[in-house]
Amino acid sequence: MFFFYFFEKTEQFVEEMFRYLDINFEKGISTKNNNIDYILKDLDNLDTLVEVKEIKNNYRDVIISATNRIKDCRKSFIDKTINNYSLLIVFGTVNKEQKDYFLKDNIVIIDISNILYLIKDRQDLIWNLKNILPFSIVDVIPENIQLEKYINYKKMSKNCNNDSLEDELIEEIKSIDKGIEGSREFERVGENVIKFLFEDYIYDWKSQVSCDNKLHRIDLLGKVKHQDGFWKMLYEIYKSRYIIFEFKNYNNKITQEQVETTNKYLNKNALRTVAIIISREGTDKNAKKACKSVLRAQGQLILTLNEKDLIFMLESKRENHDKDISSEYMEKIFDDFLLEIEK
After folding, report:
1. 212 Cβ contact list (under 8 Å, min separation 6)
2. Does the first or last residue of the chain, that is N or C, have fewer Cβ atoms within 10 Å of its Cβ?
């Protein structure tokens, strides 16, 4: 099931990346000897073969298999004008030695570091990439790849400036009217903020998830990546494969009632044992007691954030792009919550 999900999502991503780079492509090409994922058409009308792969363990075997497929497909294009170089796009990391080894066969490996470089000016594509990967790429440094050395295409100038994205999100939060009128907008903006802050550790986001025979809907659900850090710690302690996010756009502090509603979404058998409620004004004392009661009675965790918390994390991310301040801040909220638990 995961393979088909991943293949579908990577296919969509690769095609969007090609469009962004102004590269013409055809997909799903069958040849006499094999299938190839894509054929690129460059300015000289040359056909560039492209194979797409995900790699985990034993990645060398996967790469060898993919490069052999490319070589077999080349034979079917003997009567056509084919580019000397072919591309292997890898959703994983490949070291320089491996890249150099296969470059001798005119096969150019483009891994995650190269993909990040190619889309560095498109925040939406970066979000999409992180959302489909089951592992974090927070430590992956974008690495330059000069595609024009291997395919003849017109390299477009991309004038995008994402330096103020944090400020834009902050202004969006502040501009939302509190109350029922702005509730849907708060969900939309809040979802964008949460994804932006925690995209390196949570993926496969789903909005408005129905549960309990469609009587209730979870605002936002994300899956924890298998990485170290705060989010994996929650997974290991509470066995929560998924994190629930609920958005409350109330004029006043949320009450015990909202905590009890969120508690209905928690389910140990469904690996949903951690929820985070995001509100405008925070929680009253009864809501705080209710969160503690859920932990004591059920061993499940409900944390709360308010508008000021979101703004602080966005400001911190803007000032500290090389640090994971947001997850550190969440860990502090978690620690403070545990320290307040009575017997």
Report:
1. 264
2. C
Task: Give which of 170, 166, 185, 172 is closest to 123, Cα–Cα.
Answer: 166
Question: Any idea what DSSP says for residue 322?
Answer: T
CA 88 – CA 108 distance, rounded (Å): 6
Report whether 10 contacts 132 (CB < 8 A). yes
Domain 165-339 - what CATH class?
Answer: alpha beta
pTM of structure: 0.71
Cα–Cα dist 124/101, whole Å: 33
pLDDT in tens, 117-139: 999 888 888 888 888 888 888 78
Q: What is the dihedral of CA 234, 289, 314, 247, to 10 degrees?
A: 90
Question: Dihedral of CA 295/298/299/301: which sign?
Answer: negative
CA gap 85, 108 in Å, rounded: 7
Residue 13 and residue 91 in contact, taking contact as beta carbons nearer than 8 Å: no
Strand order in the sheet with 86-91: 24-30, 35-41, 47-54, 86-91, 107-110
What's the CATH fold of domain 2-149? Trna Endonuclease; Chain: A, domain 1 (3.40.1350)
DSSP per position, 241-278: SEEEEEEE--SS-B-HHHHHHHHTT-BTTTTB-EEEEE
- Give the helix/strand (H/E) hosting 167: helix 165-175
Domain with CATH 3.40.1350.10 in the chain: 2-149, 165-339
Q: How many other C-beta atoms can be found within 10 angstroms of the C-beta atom of residue 182? A: 16
The CA-based angle 59-64-70, given to 5 degrees, is 125
Degrees to nearest 5, angle at CA 40 with 88 and 59: 10
Read off the pLDDT of residues 230-258 as tens digits, 9 standing for 90 and up.
Answer: 998 999 999 999 999 999 999 999 999 99
Residues near 243 by beta carbon (within 8 Å), at least 6 away in sequence:
202, 221, 222, 223, 224, 231, 234, 274, 275, 276
Q: Which residue has the tokens 């017997």?
A: 343
DSSP result, 57-91: TBHHHHHHHHHHHHHHHHHTTTTS-B-S-EEEEEE
